[in-house]
UniProtKB/TrEMBL annotation:
The keyword Secreted does not apply. InterPro entries: GntR_C, TF_FadR/GntR_C, Tscrpt_reg_HTH_GntR, WH-like_DNA-bd_sf, WH_DNA-bd_sf. CDD domains: WHTH_GntR (cd07377). Keywords: DNA-binding, Transcription, Transcription regulation. This is HTH gntR-type domain-containing protein. The keyword GTP-binding does not apply.
Length: 247
């Protein structure tokens, strides 16, 4: 008798998905928390992330940063970080140190006074121009941003300076003067780290009132350009007096 053909035993297929995932290597920590970036437009993204961190006071003057530590924090190669740092050094926002490291320069009292005078002129102009362009919806947005800064203990939050920056630059961008906004941004990059001094002083008040912001909002509702400019100038001047005492 002919034996029936043996039944073939089905072979279980092995999928890579069934394998346990490899544990990711622990990345070298950077000087602050940053999101992982995509591979496109990396130079600009690193540049923008560093600028935002500096203007929000998340980096202190004199603190060293290496290309390698920043690349590890961003999860990217060295080249985009090197190019971003090169741009910031060329703009005199960062200074190059030995061993391929960079740092925010320490600002002298004289330099801070000069920057403050220029800021008052430029930012007052931006506020005046914005007063004639803002809509009611824009004013509501500014009002919400300011309200967030006046919540109890808001000044003790790490995001306080970021909210303050967002309030100011939302207004300045409404001026429609892109060159002016770029100039203002370059000045904020130089004094951003010092804003933590102002934050510490405000934090001693349980619910810090943003007096000049309220004056500004009233001026915007009336579309009073000159009053808006004066409010911004007074806001900068008061903050500068607090910071200057610590320099």
């Amino acid at each position: 008798m002919t034996k029936p053909p043996a039944k073939k035993t089905a072979r279980a297929s092995l999928s890579l998905d069934a394998l346990p995932a490899a544990r990711p290597k622990r990345a070298e920590s950077g000087p602050f928390e940053v999101p992982k970036l995509q591979r496109n437009t990396l130079n600009d993204e690193v540049y923008d992330q560093l600028k935002q961190a500096i203007m929000a006071g998340r980096l202190e003057p004199g603190v060293r940063m290496t290309i390698r530590s920043l690349a590890a924090a961003f999860g990217i190669s060295l080249m985009p970080v090197r190019e971003a740092l090169r741009r910031l050094v060329a703009e005199q926002v960062l200074e190059m140190l030995p061993n391929r490291s960079v740092a925010l320069p320490v600002i002298t009292r004289e330099r801070f006074r000069e920057i403050t005078q220029i800021r008052i002129s430029l930012e007052s102009l931006a506020a005046e121009e914005a007063a004639g362009r803002v809509t009611d919806a824009d004013i509501e947005t500014l009002d919400r941003l300011n309200a967030a800064m006046e919540k109890p203990n808001a000044a003790q939050s790490p995001g306080y300076l970021e909210s303050n920056r967002e309030f100011h630059f939302y207004l300045y961008r409404k001026s429609g003067l892109t060159i002016l906004v770029s100039l203002i941004e370059s000045l904020w990059l130089q004094i951003g780290p010092l804003l933590t001094i102002q934050q510490a002083a405000i934090a001693r008040t349980p619910t810090p009132p943003q007096v000049h912001h309220h004056v500004l909002l009233r001026a915007l509702k009336k579309r009073d350009a000159k009053a808006a400019g004066r409010a911004i100038g007074a806001d900068i001047d008061d903050a500068a007096k607090i910071i200057a005492k610590a320099l």
